[in-house]
Every structure is written in C-alpha cells, then in structure tokens.
Specification:
The chain is of the alpha/beta class. It has one domain: 3-Layer(aba) Sandwich (Rossmann fold), CATH 3.40.50.10680. It is 39% helix and 19% strand. It is built from twelve helices and 14 strands. The strands form four sheets. The chain has a seven-stranded parallel sheet, sandwiched between helices. Strands 7-6-8 form a three-stranded antiparallel sheet. Strand 6 and strand 7 form a beta hairpin. The N terminus is likely disordered. Bound molecules: ligand FO1. Ligand FO1 binds next to helix 2 and helix 6. InterPro entries: CofD, CofD-like_dom_sf, FbiA/CofD. It is an enzyme of class 2 (transferase).
C-alpha cells in the first residue's frame, strides 16, 4: 500500500449517503485538507420556508462524525419535538426534520436571505462542524431535479421521500442547469492542476452524478484535465448498494449491471472515465468490458465498516501511483 501523504489533492464527485461513505474513507487515508468533494445540489429544495441541501448536509455530517449511522442522513442522537408539534398543527411532516438538523436549515436559509452565496454558507457550516475536507456545492445557482414518471412529473424529494421511489421513472430533468455556473473554486483548482485524481463516488448516476456533470463546461473540464478519472460502480451483483439506482436502470431499459453503469457514462460523457472499479463479486464481467481507454479494476466496493471504506479508498488512490 502506498503512502498518499506526498500527493496532491483529490476531487471526489458525490451525491448523498453512498458517496459519503467513500468520501469518509478517502478523508481517512489522505493528508488533512487534501480531499475536495463536489456535491450534487439537484435534490436541494425549499420546504416550510427553509432551504434544504440534503446531499451537502449528508457529506458535512458524515465527515464531521455526526451522521445518524443507521439512516446515513440526518444527525445522530436526534430528537423530533418540532415535527411532533408541526403534526399537531396539521403541517406537512412527510420530510422528517430533526430538532438539531433544523438549526442547519435555519442557519443556511438565514445566511442565504442575507445575500451570501450557497458556497460561502457551506464553507461556514463546514468550519463550524469541524470538517477538515473541503465540501463544495456543485453550484451556488439553483438547479432542481425533476423525476419524470409514467403518470406525472415530481420534484425530486416528493419522488424520493414522499412517494418512496415507487412511481416508474421515464427520465429526469434538471431545472436551471443551463444557467448554473459550476463551482468557481473547483474550476480554478482544475485549471491549476491541483488534483492528482478525480473520483466519481458510487452514487446514483442519474440523480446524483448527472446533475454535476451536466453543469455547463464541467464534464469537459474533468475529461480534459490530466488527472485520471476513476468511476466506482454503484451497482454490485445486479443490485444498488444504496437507493433506487437499480430500479431506475431497470425502468429506463439500461442493463442492471456494472456494464450498464459504464455504458451510461461512456455514452453521455465520452472519454471521461479512465478507470472503472467493479466489485470482486462482478469480477467475471471484467473480460466483457471493452470500452476504449477504460482500465477495469476489481476491488471490494461494499463499504459496511470504516475499514471497508479505507480499503476501497486505498484501492482507488493506489491506481494513480501504481
Ligand atoms: N430521506 C428520507 O428517506 N426520508 C426523510 O424524511 C428524509 C429527511 C431528510 C432531512 C434532512 C436531510 O438532509 C436529508 C433527509 N433525507 C431523508 C435524505 C434525502 O432525501 C436525500 O436527498 C436522499 O438520501 C438522496 O440523496
């Protein structure tokens, strides 16, 4: 195993819970401050007058060691008095906001109303929570994911939380993406050659990573960058490690395998992926992957323990030095 202390920074692209696991492993094995995470904000929404950034908060809480371990989202040791009182008033309680988590939403909404950019507010929150890595919203401009289903189109959180991902999906759109500017600091770091590797975490390709890559100019900037791009498959042995990715692939007619994941990225972002990490249980698929320029790597990608997260992080980082 290589000592990663001497190397440059790493940029990880992430959605919420699944991506946060690998981000935590990367943070553990990299020198402090060398991990930058560019996070999806397509599932941000305005709820009860508050600006909620679920994937950003999942990253912040996970890297701060404060995440609820069973849910992956929200804070550990949470209480629910506000939600109970809201229910008594007849308010909407389908989206669960814990009492401590509420402070994050109140603070963010207050700072945004005062004219701060989302990027600056997240920097403040990260520093208050004691997060050593850099957590970057993909953009400070609003992008909102809509899930198109057979019978209706739903804002992302209505589909994901209220409808529990049950409606059959036919596609996705990202409102506002055409005018959204990619995170300026990350674009500058890319231009300056600050990253030794770019890692696409095992997050949902359609609703977590696509909104990031479809920001104007972003995926081309990643593809043109000399730092290799390593994609970790979110599909293992035909199932999604976390969330509805496998269900969505089946409904969209994409093969529910690691091959289907790679085909999605290669079709929409040609030349982006240099390394593709698949799980050991999918090792037999390796010989059937013949995407030009893609190096296939087999590793243990299921991250149940902290050790699992660190081992996968080492396997990914070793690719660049190896
Ligand atoms: N996910 C749920 O499945 N149910 C919830 O009630 C819920 C509340 C919630 C509150 C704050 C927050 O930061 C995240 C929350 N999530 C909840 C997760 C959220 O829906 C994420 O967008 C998904 O996990 C997809 O990344």
């Amino acid at each position: 195993m290589i000592d990663h202390a001497a190397k440059r920074s790493v940029l990880a692209l992430s959605g919420g819970v699944g991506g946060a696991k690998l981000a935590l492993g990367l943070e553990d094995v990299l020198p402090a401050g060398e991990l930058h995470v560019l996070v999806n904000t397509g599932d941000d929404f305005e709820h009860l007058g508050l600006h909620i950034s679920p994937d950003i908060d999942t990253l912040l809480y996970t890297l701060a060691g404060k995440a609820n371990p069973s849910q992956g989202w929200g804070l550990e040791g949470e209480s629910w008095h506000m939600l109970e009182a809201l229910a008594q008033l007849g308010g909407e309680t389908w989206f669960q906001l814990g009492d401590k988590d509420l402070a994050t939403h109140l603070w963010r909404t207050h700072r945004l109303a005062g004219g701060q950019a989302l990027t600056a507010v997240i920097n403040e929150l990260a520093s208050q929570l004691g997060v050593a890595s850099r957590v970057h919203p993909m953009s400070s401009d609003p992008v909102r994911t809509t899930v198109h289903c057979r019978s209706e189109s739903l804002p992302f959180q209505r589909y994901f939380v209220e409808q529990r991902c049950q409606p059959e999906v036919t596609g996705f759109s990202f409102e506002g993406i055409g005018n959204a500017r990619p995170n300026r600091e990350v674009m500058t770091l890319l231009r300056n050659g600050a990253f030794s590797q770019i890692v696409v975490c095992p997050s949902n390709p359609f609703v977590s990573i696509d909104p990031i890559l479809q920001l104007p100019g972003l995926w081309q900037a990643l593809a043109d960058n000399p730092a290799p791009v390593t994609l970790v498959s979110p599909i293992v042995a035909g199932i999604a490690i976390k969330g509805p990715a496998a269900k969505m692939m089946a409904e969209l007619g994409v093969p529910v395998t690691a091959l289907g994941v790679l085909a999605h990225y290669c079709r929409h972002y040609p030349g982006l992926v240099n390394n593709f990490v698949i799980d050991a249980s999918d090792a037999t698929l390796a010989s059937s992957i013949d995407e030009p320029g893609v190096n296939v790597v087999v590793a243990s990608t299921v991250m149940k323990t902290r050790d699992d997260k660190q081992s996968l992080a080492h396997a990914v980082l070793d690719l660049v030095e190896g």
